[in-house]
Amino acid sequence: MKFDPNHLAALAAVLRLGSFEAAAHNLSVTPSAVSQRIKALEERVGTALIKRALPCRGTDAGLRLAKHAEDIALLEGLVSKELMLDGDVSSSPHLRTAINADSLATWFIPAMAATPDLLFDLVIDDQDHSADWLKRGEVSAAVTAHDKPSPGCDAYPLGAMRYIATASPAYMARNFAQGPTRETLAQAPCLTFNAKDALQQRWLEQNFGKGLSPPAHFLPSTQGFADAACAGLGWGMNPVGLVAPALASGDLVPLLPDAALDIALTWQVSRVMAPALVPLTKAVLSSARDHLIQPPS
Asked: How confident is the model at residue 84 (pLDDT cuts 50, 70, 90)?
């Protein structure tokens, strides 16, 4: 089945920008023209593609087609560059990528800055779950905690992100005056990013065994997570790259000495899109070498 490129572009714009009006402005057409293109595409595939709300959201079929449209734009951009055709910055292709919040906050932005020809559409998800977006065909690349390539993908080891269980000195004096124990850890509040965040539980099992389930604050913000630890709200697993200044100043202290938790990360790229993403892959690997823990050579 062939699709009209203008119809696909309209779908991708609506789902990326959230409304028919914004998509119309982006495409330099009227909202009515966007609506007609979406209707024609839905008639073509025989199913609804957009959940009309504020913001507009895609159905499963709509999301898959929108990614197909962005993949085409990315590949066309590669051909134009190889043929040294004149480019238009306004038509820079979008790349949808799944990444964990801690990587975005600590090392991924330099890789983005090194690839100015791309416009990024980042999906934030836990490193243990970001590969699911690849498996569903909803992103073209992902930072994951899985070293085994997802179907149809290439995988590149990045190194490990080092986490330290940290808290403020006041929190430590209040809850762990004699040091953390199973008994005190069962009662003292911890910090959790969201329901998918298993880092605190991993650290507890690694150092104190299974069966602990402390009370938790849920804070879905990397910076807010670190700020909450500094404020004495709870203890949590913070990436060393983010909290090194707070550790150096004494605003944060480790719960235990020499008890870091290293999480190995992998860059996975759709094999079909890999040639177009070579510059980004190089930038990602370079930034990872500069910021993540690398295995001994």
From this structure: low
